[in-house]
Amino acid sequence: MSGELDLLVLGSGVAGLSAAVRAASEHGMRTGVLTKGRLEQTTTRWAQGGVAAALTGDPEQVDLHLADTLAAGAGLCDVDAVRVLVDEGPRRVEELIGLGAEFDRDERGDLDLAREGGHSVARVVHAGSATGAEVERALVAAVRSTAAAVLEHTFAHDLIVEGGRCVGVAAHGPDGPTEVRSRNLLLATGGAGQLFEVTTNPPEATGDGVAMALRAGVAVADLEFFQFHPTALALVAMPRPLLSEALRGHGALLRDAHGERFVDELLPRDVVSRAILAKMLEQHTSHVWLDATGLEHFDVRFPNIAASLAAAGLDAAVDLLPVAPAAHHQCGGILTDLFGATTMPGLWAAGETTCTGVHGANRLASNSLLEGMVFGPRAVEAIAAGAPGPTATGAMRCVLGFPDGADTDDATGLDIGGAPLGVAAAPHRPGADEPTWSPVDVAATRARVQHSMSTLAGVVRSADGLAECADVLDTVASELPERPEAADVAELRNLVEVGRVLVAAALARTESRGTQARLDFPDTDPAQRHRLVVGGSA
Q1: 269 belongs to the catalytic site
Q2: Are 464 and 186 spatial neighbours (Cβ–Cβ below 8 Å)?
Q3: What is the pLDDT of residue 199?
Q4: Catalytic position from the list 22, 240, 269, 493
Q5: Is the model's pLDDT at 218 over the cut of 70?
Q6: Radius of gyration of the chain from its Cα atoms, rounded to whole angstroms
Q7: pLDDT tens figures, 54-64
Q8: Are 242 and 321 in contact (CB under 8 A)?
Q9: Whether the Cβ atoms of residue 32 and residue 9 lie closer than 8 Å to each other
């Protein structure tokens, strides 16, 4: 690769690729995409559900999408960010169709819209049960034809910061250590589902972007809010096969060990996940059952799910399907304004790795792909316009404060301030050395971290459990090298660093709100309607 890039995108999911396509094709930027696997190897590819958008153009339908998103977010959504999402979302879906994405249509040729949990109406477009794969396919093809550089199998270790500005990344590629420099860097590295032992995320979801941001002092917020999908197929497989929310939207029912229905299947995901876990504990079972036997034409409507079930010896037409919650989506992350700017000049972020304020304490189903499709391109527009850094908009207001004269009435959501969260530096054992870590050591330690996070900081939490989990993470942190060379050790370091902040935030938030369920603080505390922020000074 010769010549400095105008924009380097880290990650190849929907947020990163949407941004890369726009930067290269519409603004003529010299754009590079760096990913630690293949372009196609992302969490986006595993997304089965769909993309939520009010495609009719009816203002009332757009407002309804906004209201449903705010309700799911349990008081921590930024209204302005959600308004951007629902207003711009339909246009982004149409652009994706223009790139060649093919979504399900009815007999009249109109898009076939589904209803999912937390949605008051049907507004979710699908490509069978493989929407993410179809979105990824269309974007990968576009990026390969427009990007100036595509760096696959290249692991970014740390940000390069000079004069307070991000100017690239230090990475390790197929030919060894390298630096990739760019005038602007967009982190679109996805989430950290691999923090937990049961997840729907691929092995690559190790919180790399958030960890790099934390090490560079960039503001991060809302990490305590991690969404568990209620209906992952309870089989020994990783990532866990996901039984799409669309099944419940079409009438599939959840049943306990006695065959009894026990929850409204279309409630938000956090509510359904807790109901399932409570039933499992009550009945001493490892799963509950999803009953899709009443759904007509299952194989035609959900061919990918049908194929996964067949491979496991199951047939949805006659079998009840074993399901249990699995770690699914990181609702917080790197703090950004409405244009993707972080607290560090030259550094931008989009997608699951961010805290835009869109999801609040719990993401509304099928808003994740939409978030990447909307905010990735918005970052590109801001870069093209020469934006120097963050503005006091969206979730960034919790760091920069509110503009003079801003309306701070509770109903607007503009008053969500930030409370600084102090996290002690990770302990480090003198003499901790990279060569002492074998692949077996890494795998065993990663499993230990995942088990602790799942049992002590998962769907439900308590002070005692979180403190025990923090001790485990601190012990592992003390044994890790400060600058690991091997990718598997670097991923473990990233998971531990993100996990330490998640657990610290969960301990500090002494209430239950959205995906944060504290057994010792079961009620929501209006006084804690704020974001817990680590790092960052703009």
Answers
A1: yes
A2: no
A3: 92
A4: 269
A5: yes
A6: 22
A7: 888 889 999 99
A8: no
A9: yes
